[in-house]
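## retry 2 of 3
previous attempt timed out at serialization; input unchanged, resubmitting
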Amino acid sequence: MSNIAKLGNMIKHAMDASKEHQSAQRGIIQGDCVLINNKLYTYTAVVDLSVSDNNQVWCIVTADKNAAVIVGA
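## retry succeeded, writing output
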């Protein structure tokens, strides 16, 4: 699967999740994960940004609730 297709798939999952949650949630970067409401999720980003530990970001949890997509910082 190409990188463009992967990105499209991530955005689709984020859109599906946003229908359920209706908004992005605030999270805190902790290593390779983001902490949202006391739960750690692996993450990907749909925007070009540089993050490091303890940075706050806006995320949408994917529909399968196994990952988060960072949509802003």
